């Protein structure tokens, strides 16, 4: 994660230890939970709810896991250019921040779904959320 990748490297306070990550999709949103100590992520059940109703399910996950912050994968074209899904994912990140009051970090998620499929994931959305979160966790000091 660097400025050359489309997103700046985040400054994450040391007290932020646990994270809930999302691979946003219009119809399905992959979810993973992880922490700074192990720098690993675990897939959770994908949220297959569209529109604002998805935030009810997300709220339940936040209450269950009580993360210090949230992470959202933001897609870009291979050359780093933005597209419609880039804007949708960023809007989703802003909505999470506004609804739940947690810090939201954006991660360049180019190729996460391709990687999830290559690894043979049964739930590519949840696996992509894990890949996104582990990429984020590896970037932390």
Automatic annotation (TrEMBL):
Span of domain YqgF/RNase H-like: 17-116
Family classification: Belongs to the YqgF HJR family.
Highest taxon, organism lineage: Bacteria
Originating organism: Curvibacter microcysteis
Taxonomic placement: Bacteria, Pseudomonadati, Pseudomonadota, Betaproteobacteria, Burkholderiales
EC number: 3.1.-.-
Function of the protein: Could be a nuclease involved in processing of the 5'-end of pre-16S rRNA.
PANTHER family according to UniProt: POLYNUCLEOTIDYL TRANSFERASE, RIBONUCLEASE H-LIKE SUPERFAMILY PROTEIN (PTHR33317)
The name this protein goes by in its record: Putative pre-16S rRNA nuclease
Matching HAMAP family: Nuclease_YqgF (MF_00651)
Subcellular location(s) per record: Cytoplasm
Predominant cellular place of this UniProt entry's protein: cytoplasm
SUPFAM superfamilies on file: Ribonuclease H-like (SSF53098)
UniProtKB keywords: Cytoplasm, Hydrolase, Nuclease, Ribosome biogenesis
Keyword RNA-binding set for record: no
InterPro entries per UniProt: RNaseH-like_sf (IPR012337), YqgF (IPR005227), YqgF/RNaseH-like_dom (IPR006641), YqgF/RNaseH-like_dom_sf (IPR037027)
């Amino acid at each position: 994660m660097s400025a050359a990748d489309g997103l700046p490297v985040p400054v994450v306070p040391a007290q932020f230890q646990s994270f809930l990550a999302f691979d946003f999709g219009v119809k399905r949103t992959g979810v993973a939970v992880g922490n700074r100590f192990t720098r690993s992520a675990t897939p959770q059940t994908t949220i297959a709810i569209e529109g604002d109703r998805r935030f009810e399910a997300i709220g339940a996950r936040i209450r269950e896991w009580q993360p210090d912050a949230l992470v959202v994968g933001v897609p870009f074209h291979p050359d780093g250019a933005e597209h419609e899904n880039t804007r949708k994912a960023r809007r989703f990140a802003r909505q999470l921040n506004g609804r739940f009051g947690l810090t939201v970090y954006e991660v360049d998620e180019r190729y996460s779904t391709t990687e999830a499929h290559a690894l043979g994931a049964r739930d590519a959305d949840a696996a992509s959320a894990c890949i996104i979160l582990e990429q984020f966790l590896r970037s932390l000091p």
